[in-house]
Amino acid sequence: MDHRRLGRSGLNVSEITYGNWLTHGELVGRDSALACIRAALDAGISTFDTADVYAFGAAEEVLGEALRPVRRSSVEIATKVCLPTGDGPNDQGLSRKHIMESCHASLRRLGTDYVDLYQAHRFDERTALDETLIAFDDLVRQGKVLYLGVSEWTAPQIQAALDLGEGLGLRSRIVANQPQYNMLWRVIEPEVLPLCRSAGIGQMVFQPLAQGVLTGKYLPGRPPPQGSRASSAGRAPRFIRRVLGETLLERIQQLRPLADEAGLSMAQLAIAWTLRQEGVNSAIIGATRPEQVTENAAAAGVRLSDDLVVKIDAILGDLVDRDPAKTAQMMAVKAGWSREEA
User: Fold this and answer.
1) Nearest to 190 by CA among 318, 310, 324
2) What residues contact 308, with CB distance under 8 A and at least 6 apart?
3) Cβ-count burial of 97 within 10 angstroms (0-12 exposed, 13-18 middle, 19+ buried)?
4) Choosing from 54, 147, 181, 218, which is the catalytic residue?
5) What is the mean pLDDT of residues 309-315?
6) Cα 230 to Cα 218: distance, rounded to the nearest angstrom
């Protein structure tokens, strides 16, 4: 497993990060979750991503249990705060109260004294940015958080945080961004990526497989295969069906010969594609079975030729979304955002 420096920070992260959104505590039980994390460790993955809202805290608990036998300094644990963790008026957002309480709760669930990376899960339009940044900075000063990041923030929001942090004289600064990014969803390319490159902010991208669509297992004209996310219970089908469509599925099948030519699985091709982008330091994968972890982790270190990338772009063509406004539409914390939507 190769490692990369996270932006201009001193933190090294594995090229593949193991994440447990929509899996641990929801799609898979405890034993399967523990087996997946062991497979990640066996594959050399050292970076693990979760959030307080995943499975309403159960995901952090499972991850903490799985990593307990591991030397703490040998892994990097990232978690997030912002989305609703309860029904109270202060159980969401980026207020000082919610940040402090959520951080302490995450540390308890994870069974650790600190997290390597603490991320603002979304931008909070209802809380003053200086209140958020000062609360994060205090957690860094207390040693409970080592590095700070954001997720699904727009370029202007990231720039505002950088400018304000400098003006306030804060010791800590944003070093990581966690956006959705894959062959089909490239909305960070026009604005977010250029800003982050110049500011030294690294990208830890999620959904490199577009909810499994880029694995090629969803075939045009056929129902979702049994055991897939689209056929499961819970919230997973709601997320994945947003990206399913006959034309899209037909085009994705045209990528299969390219993967075969490169000696890769479809999943490995998609993950390696994200890792080739300048500024992307790690791709976050999820899994319901250990063998998926092993397969996807093998994308680390793969370098795709420019000719292959050109062929991929020609196949996907007008199905690729590059509109930077889509980030703003997806990410803002709205009044009344329920726990089920998180």
Assistant:
1) 324
2) 258, 261, 262
3) middle
4) 54
5) 97
6) 9
> What pLDDT is recorded for position 29?
78
**For the segment 41-54, what is each residue's pLDDT rounded down to a tens digit?**
999 999 999 999 99
pLDDT, tens only, 259-293: 999 999 999 999 999 999 999 999 999 998 999 99
pLDDT at 340 over 80: no
Residue 55 dihedral angles phi and psi, to the nearest 5°: 55, 30
> For residues 77 and 106, is the Cβ–Cβ distance under 8 A?
no
**3-336 CATH choice from 3.20.20.100, 3.40.50.1980, 3.30.930.10, 1.10.10.10:** 3.20.20.100
Nearest-angstrom CA–CA distance, 118 and 302: 29
Q: What is the pLDDT of residues 61-72, one digit of tens each?
A: 999 999 999 999
**What is the token pair recorded at 225?**
């295969």
User: Is the separation of the CB atoms in 59 and 98 below 8 Å?
Assistant: no
For the ranges 55-64, 109-118, 145-154, 231-240, the lowest mean pLDDT is seen at 231-240
Q: Is residue 54 annotated as part of the catalytic site, yes or no?
A: yes
Q: pTM of the predicted model, to two decimals?
A: 0.90
Identity of the amino acid at 58: A
Please report, for the chain, how many H helices and E strands are present, in that order: 13, 10
Only one residue has tokens 């207020």, namely 95
Domain ranges of the chain: 3-336
Q: Which two tokens stand for residue 336?
A: 């009344």
Helix (H) or strand (E) holding 297: helix 290-297
Average pLDDT estimate for 239-265? 86
Contact (CB, 8 A) for 172 and 135: no
Give the tokens for residue 181.
């990014």
Handedness of CA 212, 331, 59, 284 (dihedral sign): positive
